[in-house]
Amino acid sequence: MSATYPIVRGLPTLDRCRVMGVVNVTPDSFSDGGAFADADSAVKHGLQLWAEGADLIDVGGESTRPGATRVAPAEEQARVEPVVAALAAAGAMVSIDTMHASTARVALRAGASVVNDVSGGLVDPDLPRVVADAGVPYVVMHWRGHSDHMQERASYTDVVAEVRAALSARLDALVAAGLAAEQIVLDPGIGFAKDAEHNWALLAHLDALLDLGRPLLVGVSRKSFLGALLADDAEPRAVVDRDDATAALSALVAAGGAWCVRVHEVRASADAVRVAARLRTERSS
Fold first, then answer.
1. Among 77, 97, 78, CA closest to 31
2. How many C-alpha atoms does 17 have within 13 Å on its Cβ side?
3. What is the pTM of this model?
4. Does the annotation count 223 as an active-site position?
């Protein structure tokens, strides 16, 4: 498995896996129940994550949990623009989590440095062009459909091979559309149109995705497959009590070559990726 942390155009080089902290400016997030739905609380939370060691703050105005209702781009923009602007003005490096070109434009003007698109450019064909013109990093996730029906599409013969092939095809298509390969980060989409067994298979075989030659972002934080693993008396572990398991996976995927982990609770994962990097350094020497 690759032991490198590759360079992504537009971001500083690090000798370890990055940590992306999540700020959901939504009333219906699975992870925090809308605790940061207003701009002031979202900015405060983002600054706390930054102080705890996040390398990027990922701001989203539309929930992508299974079953979530779609949000109009104008509403999404009203939610995220003041948060992105305030965090960027405070010195944080901000990612905008959106599938819409118009929202990306607004966020980039407000100071965002990265675009994180869970649809991998499939929802809005203008979004890759916006990213190409801006020259910023673009996170491209494996995607099979919107949140309200994506779990109906969690059917694979070989999930690792099929996700790898889909990401490879998106990479080729985006480069053909004008993006530089050096801008692109790939995301296997843990939990998106995938059941628990699919998630574990992908995590166990990140090497197959690393072979595509692009950095990998891995988002497992607080997801339902962890709740199922940690179930007590047949009841899934509560969402906010999954952070220890999240940090454990942060260490493991960082040691396996992941470029970034996306998490809701930053401090433990920030420690975990540093431990993983130190151990990798010792092994390589």
1. 97
2. 37
3. 0.93
4. yes
Catalytic residue among 223, 237, 242, 280: 223
The one catalytic residue among 170, 194, 222, 262 = 262
At 60, phi and psi to the nearest 5?
Answer: -130, 145
Residue 97 to residues 25, 69, 120, 143, Cα–Cα distance (Å): 11, 16, 11, 14
Backbone angles phi, psi at 96, to 5 degrees: -105, 125
CB 57 within 8 A of CB 23: yes
Beta strands (DSSP E) in 4-97 are 18-24, 56-60, 94-97
C-beta atoms surrounding 33 within 10 Å: 14
- Tens of pLDDT along 231-285? 988 899 999 999 999 999 999 999 999 999 999 999 999 999 999 999 988 888 7
Does 164 participate in catalysis according to the annotation? no
> Do 190 and 220 form a contact (C-beta atoms < 8 A)?
yes
